[in-house]
Amino acid sequence: MNIEVITSFNSEYYQNIGRACVSSWLEHWPKNMILTCYVEDCRLESHVRLCQIPFSELGSSYQAFQKRDIHSQEKKFAKKAYSIIHAMCNSTADWIIWLDSDVITLQNITADILDYLTPDGKVSSCLGVWYDFDKTGNFGRYYVPESGIFSLNLKHSLFPSVQAAYQKCYNEYAWEGLRRKLDNDALGAALLPHRQYVNDMCQGLAKPYKTPLPHTKLGPYLQHYKAKHSKVDVDINFAQWSTQVALVQ
Fold first, then answer.
1. Structurally, what CATH architecture does the domain formed by 3-240 represent?
2. Which pLDDT does position 116 carry in this prediction?
3. What residues does each domain of the chain span?
4. In the chain, N or C terminus with fewer CB closer than 10 Å?
């Protein structure tokens, strides 16, 4: 099975924490795997296990979205979303695994963990999170996966439906009924009709965590620095990884 891992960052974010994501990925993920990095206004040193795609290749729909008169947070997270959309449309892999660039790999990713992320018969693995209120306090029931890491089965018969629903949120700015206009809301809307074919990695947890990763089977392997404090303040020892990849000036 062919698996492609993807992430995205700009120069500032790479210097801040993205380099720890990339270096720890090179150190701990299987040596026959490739990490595709969607890069904005920067370029990494060449590496046999890294593929780089500039944001200029994200297409006209991405450019049109960024020109909208909308909240800056929507534009920020659309960078992630359109990287995912590009992979949906262009990857030749069987599965894609999305990894936020502030996710650090702590130990070697085993075949068992890869199987957990890419299970037979499923269209996706995700960290399912539910909310009972929208951002204005109105009651509702919203499926909003924590999307720091998730996977999509590009060969599954339901994938075209998932892809179309995800892209519709962004390309048509169609957010009716969603909690927010962000990428994990789009992911939840795309997966919700097919939940019986989704490997919800939060299933069986003792309580409904909003930040569930540490409590799942992935917890010992991955750490997500998603806190609101500056990533500059995160104490990361970059020297611990033998593989360091620098930005090209």
1. Alpha-Beta Complex (3.90)
2. 97
3. 3-240
4. C
